[in-house]
Amino acid sequence: MSDEQSSSVSTESPIAESVEAGTTIDLVQPEAVDQVSNAPVKEGQAEAGKTGAQQSILTGDDAGDPSGDETGETPEETKPTARAPEEYEDFSVPEGMKLEGEELTEFKFFAREQDLTQEQAQRVLDFAGPKIKAMIEQPYKAWKETTEQWWNATKADAEVGGTRLEQSVKDAGQAFVPSESNPFFKTQAEVQAIREALRLTGAMHHPEVQRLFVRMGRLLAEPSHLTGKPASQDKQQAFLNSMYPTMMEGGS
Questions:
Q1: CB neighbours of residue 191 within 10 Å
Q2: Once rounded to an integer, what is the mean pLDDT over residues 185-195?
Q3: What is the distance between the alpha carbons of residues 150 and 143, in angstroms, rounded to a whole number?
Q4: Which is nearest to 132 in space by CA: 157, 150, 112, 106?
Q5: Residue 74 pLDDT class (50, 70, 90 cuts)
Q6: Vertex 124, ends 119 and 130: CA angle to 5°?
Q7: CA separation for the pair 49, 118 (Å, rounded)
Q8: DSSP 3-state of 159
Q9: Cβ atoms of residues 187 and 177 within 8 Å
């Protein structure tokens, strides 16, 4: 480049002059900087920006996360769909149990309320069914064991059991024959009521209950003590067969 050309560049180009002088070039006009720094800030913008930054730092939340609204509710499209069918099919019921009528309706309502599928509801039945069955049967088993213990005690009793058992049963039968001369039972309805109570409770097998009715029957058989008349053989046998069916068959 000639000296003339260099002179032309240096005098016509301020940038070239600055480069040659080794100075730093500021391309932003001072007036523009002042305008930006002094621009008015709308009320609430600065505080909102500060608060949002603090929340983001403290909680780790993304201030711009649009996944939920201000109420914290999950958008409708993300809610899980129901698993329970509109109508359950037939269930397989554990052996020895019945699930029908009102009980079946209640179970289906429970399964639907818990949002159980057909398979899940069946597993509940498979697990809980035998346990419920055992709970239901437990009181009967306890009753049966107790009455068997009572009857064994009666058979071993020195007064009414042993070799006297058969006669004791006949003597007790005397008390259950209603008549006007019987001071204990006047009508068949009275006999039926006490007989039903003894059966349901199992008290008929208790040795003390047996002893009571044996003594009552013996008093009725002794006219010198009571005015009652001994029952006929047919009536007495009919009562014994109904009151003590197991014993009269020779078993316990």
A1: 19
A2: 94
A3: 11
A4: 106
A5: low
A6: 130
A7: 53
A8: coil
A9: no
Q: Choose among 201, 93, 95, 195: nearest CA to 139.
A: 201
Tokens of 234: 């047919």
> 134 or 232, which is more confident?
134
As a whole number, mean pLDDT of residues 170-199 equals 93
Largest CA distance in the chain: 169
Q: Quick check: 77 and 43 in contact, CB under 8 A? A: no
Residues 6+ apart with CB under 8 A from 204: 198, 210, 243, 244
Percentage above 70 pLDDT, the chain: 56
Find the distance separating the first CA and the last CA of the chain, reported in whole Å: 137
Answer whether 185's CB lies under 8 Å from 191's CB: yes
| The token pair that represents 231 in the structure block | 């029952």
CB 94 within 8 A of CB 126: yes
* 219 vs 174: CA distance, rounded Å: 9
Q: What is the pLDDT of residue 238?
A: 58
Would you place residue 86 in the very low, low, confident or very high pLDDT band (cuts 50, 70, 90)? confident
The pair of structure tokens assigned to 84 is 């329970």
Integer angstrom CA distances of residue 183 from 14, 18, 31, 138, 211: 143, 141, 129, 40, 18
Whole-number Å distance between alpha carbons of 168 and 211: 8
The predicted structure's pLDDT at residue 31: 54
Residue-level pLDDT at 140: 92
Output the pTM of the full model: 0.48
Burial-class residue 29 by CB neighbours within 10 Å (0-12, 13-18, 19+).
Answer: exposed
Mean per-residue pLDDT for 68-87? 68
